[in-house]
Each structure stands twice: as structure tokens, then as C-alpha cells.
Amino acid sequence: MWDSRCTGLEASNGKWLLQFENGVQAVADMIIGANGGQSKIRNYVTDAAVEDTGTFIIQADVPRPETNSPRFFELCNGNRLMAAHGGNFLVANPYNNGVMTYGIIFKMPQQWENSNLPDFNDAGAVHSFLRERFCGWDSIYHELFKATPLFVGLPTRKLPLDKPWEKNRLLPITLIGDAAHVMPPFAGQGVNTGLMDALILAHNLTAGTFATLQESIDDYEQKMFVYAKAAQQESAVNEHKMRDADFSFRKFFD
């Protein structure tokens, strides 16, 4: 049911009673939490908390890049670009629904920790920050920053999978996707891992292999912990490489 944000669950007569923000209620035999990295359903499965990984991403769009940032647009020549130097990693896509999008990845400055982040609605302040941070980069990158009217700042987070989930659950309930294993995007495995979750859990629930819902959930979670941990580890390795001050390159790709 669209436009139905779940605000709470409770066990009632052997079933789950769901409360929604719009006042609707629903009853279910089983809950699958697939509601993203900030899932509130997760609290019914594990007390693990989402953690910052220490990396920060600035995302930005440049409208009409062929006019507003012509040198950088020509540099890309229709290709996406990746560049890294001095602890800064930049990836740009010149063709994204009529705008050029790019992201900048770096280790979060210590003064930004504890949610003490700058105001990313102040484009001028972000321009100044990037001008200083990229002082050793070619002027073509500074043209890109100056042409950017809007920035979004995002700390990267993950849900650690280093301890087992609660076994004594009131009723059948589990998690898939980012609700189960949110991770930074540095291995390109987030969506793939979520699709694997859905495939395995759906098969377990429909193949007639397991006698109970809980058995099908237990088997899914045992498998998920293995491949999701591997994806998180791959992401972490790439994350630290991107932030490495000695890591430098520039590459174009389709």
C-alpha cells in the first residue's frame, strides 16, 4: 500500500499488528523489513546500530554543463570520469537526465564529526571549501565547482554484521536490502546484495523445503550474513583506497 509509512509493530493473537502513519492498520503472519538503511523495523530483529565509516561524499549537479562548465564537459567527451589525488576522489557523469552529476569522496574532517557538518545549502561556503581542498588540482576542476549551484553532503554508513541477530523473536520477522546490511557504495554491491536477499528468501518461502516460516528465515539469514559481509569488506577496502593521499589516477569509461 503506497503512502503507508509503518510506525510500529506489536504481537497480537499470534500475528503481527502493523500501525501506519496514515492511521491504517494491518495484520500479517510474517514481516519482511525492506524499508532502507534507516529502517525502524530493524529494532525488532537486532540491536546493532548503523555506524559512520569516516568517509564523506559531496554530491552535486551542474545544469546545462555544455554551457556552465564547458571545459570540464569537453574533457569528459561523453564519458564518465574518475580522478583521484591527495586524498580526494571525484567521479563525474556528464549525461544524467540533462545535467552533469558528480561526487567527491574524502575522509571526513575531524571537526565534522558528531553531526557538526557545514551548511551545504550555502553554495558559496562549499565553493570555498573545495577551492582549498583541491588547491593542487587543475583549474578545470575548479570551474566545475564554481558552476555548481547546489550541493548535498552525505556521511557514509554501514550496519555491522559482526554479531548474530536475535533468535528469540516474537513472531517471524526478517530484513532484506539496506535494512539488513546498509553499506557505502564503493563496491557497487548494495543493490546486487539486496536482490540476492530477495531471491534466496523468496525461494525459501515458496519451494516447500522448510517446515516453518522461521526455518526458512534462519536459512536465508545464515547465507545472507556470508555474502553481505563479503560485500561490506570489499566496499571497505575500496573506501580506504579512495581516501589514500598516495592514490592518484584519472580514467574515462563508458
What would the keywords be for this entry?
11 strands; 254 residues; three-stranded antiparallel sheet; elongated; D-Amino Acid Oxidase, Chain A, domain 2; alpha+beta; FAD/NAD(P)-binding domain; six-stranded antiparallel sheet
The helical percent reads: 25-40%
How does CATH name the architecture of the largest domain?
2-Layer Sandwich
The tally of helices reads 7
By secondary-structure content and strand pairing, the structural class works out as: alpha+beta
Strand content: 25-35%
Taking the sheet with the most strands, its summary is: 6 strands, antiparallel
CATH class descriptor name of the largest domain:
Alpha Beta
What's the structural domain tally?
A: 2
The poorly predicted ranges are none
Query: How far apart are the termini?
Result: 38 Å
Q: What characteristic shape results from the CA principal axes?
A: elongated
Series of H and E elements: EEEEEHHEEEHHEEHHHE
The radius of gyration is: 22 Å
CATH topology of the largest domain: D-Amino Acid Oxidase, Chain A, domain 2
